[in-house]
Amino acid sequence: MKQYPFALKLFGISLILFLISNGISYGQIHSYDVGLRLQKTVDLYYENGITGQYTLTKRIAVGASYVTSRLGSAISSNAIKQDNFTISGAYLFRPEKKLQPFARLNTGYFAANYESDIFKDIPNSSALLALDGGLLYSFESPLKLNLSLGYNAITGDGTKGAGTLYPVFLQTSVMWNLKKMKSK
Fold first, then answer.
1. CB 109 within 8 A of CB 7
2. 69 vs 62: CA distance, rounded Å
3. Are 156 and 32 in contact (CB under 8 A)?
4. In Å, what is the CA distance from 100 to each residue of 30, 148, 151, 184?
5. For position 103, what pLDDT does the model report?
6. DSSP 55
7. Hey, CA dihedral for 111, 117, 118, 122, is it positive or negative?
8. Interior angle at CA 161, CA 151 and CA 42, nearest 5
9. Distance, CA of 177 to CA of 166 (rounded, Å)
10. CA–CA separation, 90 vs 55, rounded Å?
11. pLDDT tens-digit readout, 110-153
12. pLDDT digit string, tens, across residues 80-98
């Protein structure tokens, strides 16, 4: 599992750059949202984790997420422990409305821990490239709810690519707005 330290470093560097950009103003309302992400891969596991999103303009947002079956299906079972590290870019439609449709491109890294040497010849990691779209609802409070349906462009069958990386997934994110600032 030597790829975990590299993936964690990449995720950490991305998160630091993401947080540094929080103070940059581009003449629009900026917000930084953090929260929980609940993900269900169709016909496979529940994966849960954390997510963050920074709105650059009224229509463009960037984000980073970590979801894992360790906080989902693998908590109290022998389900395969798998981790997803992603960064994303989203386009928000209807930015002035409370209900905003969006389209998002995600890229990152996937790794599965099969926990046995008998599976050492089976691929257990992959790059991630996924598209998802859905709805984002902003409440009067700083609470935001995000529902989406996505498709992984890179999947596997166990001989080529990780066998537990399925194509279709559903996501729900519950986020809290930490900061809003207006440019002068």
1. yes
2. 24
3. no
4. 16, 12, 20, 26
5. 97
6. E
7. positive
8. 35
9. 31
10. 9
11. 988 888 888 878 888 888 999 999 999 999 888 999 999 999 99
12. 899 999 999 999 999 889 9
Residue with tokens 């991630």: 128
DSSP 63-110: EEEEEEGGGTTTSSS-PPEEEEEEEEEEEESSTTSSEEEEEEEEEEEE
3-state secondary structure of 126: strand
Cα distance between residue 35 and residue 60, in whole Å: 19
Distances (CA, A) of 35 to 27, 52, 168: 25, 6, 22
Check if the beta carbon of residue 53 is closer than 8 Å to that of residue 62: yes
CA–CA–CA angle 9, 12, 18 (5° rounding): 140
